[in-house]
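On clarity, I found the account of how folds are encoded harder to follow than it need be. What matters is that the chain and its backbone geometry are given together, residue for residue. The format is easy to grasp once an entry is in front of the reader. For illustration, here is how one protein appears when written out as sequence plus structure tokens.
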Amino acid sequence: MKKAKVEGHKIQLIPNMKRKKPYIYRIPEALKGKVDEQIGELLDAGLIEESDSDIAHPVACVYKKDGSVRLCVDYRTLNAVTKPDDFPMENAVDLMYDIGKANIITTLDLLKGYWAIPMEEHSKDYTSFKTHRAQYRFNVLPLGLKNAAATFQRVMNNSLKEFSEFARAYIDDIAIYSADIGTHLKHQDCVFRKLDELGFTVNTKKCSFVKNQIKYLGHIIGSGRHLPDPDKVKVIREL
């Protein structure tokens, strides 16, 4: 998997705050093979590398709906001493209002978007984690880090700033919106070229192309309409 040609994620610690060595969880015997397999894939893809940092974090195995296992690094002790990044998120209400006025909308999903963001070299050791076999660190932005969302929002804002009249993002939810189909196809081409230039990969299986209305941030918007997502409403009613 290629890394995007964008600014790397930097971890800054709060001055005079001392890092604690976290307790390392034991990985169940039955899951060690799955952990080894995933670590091998991450190493082969260049997403992680071996680390000799003095402090490393534990991993937990979380079952996904399909029965497979996801490795999650517990960064709580690191997050507790990380200086917050106050970069502003897009206002979700304003964003839905602007996009919802359009007649034609496309939404894009970036393939493992966080992993496309490189880690700043001096921050890599902070991401170190231990398994039953060895210690590793991330070369790319891992899930679970404080400020990860702020970094991703900044990257998306900078990536799409020349197209801000027709392309916006709420973290990794990108929307392209236009008045008519002809204009929309031109807008799509601009955004796709930019994402390709920067090295992002679009996950077409999770995209929605050229729609009059779309699901976005828990709402149905488009063609001047703005309604709550019925699926979300159903969940609330059934509580």
About this structure: The chain has six helices and twelve strands. The mean pLDDT is 93.
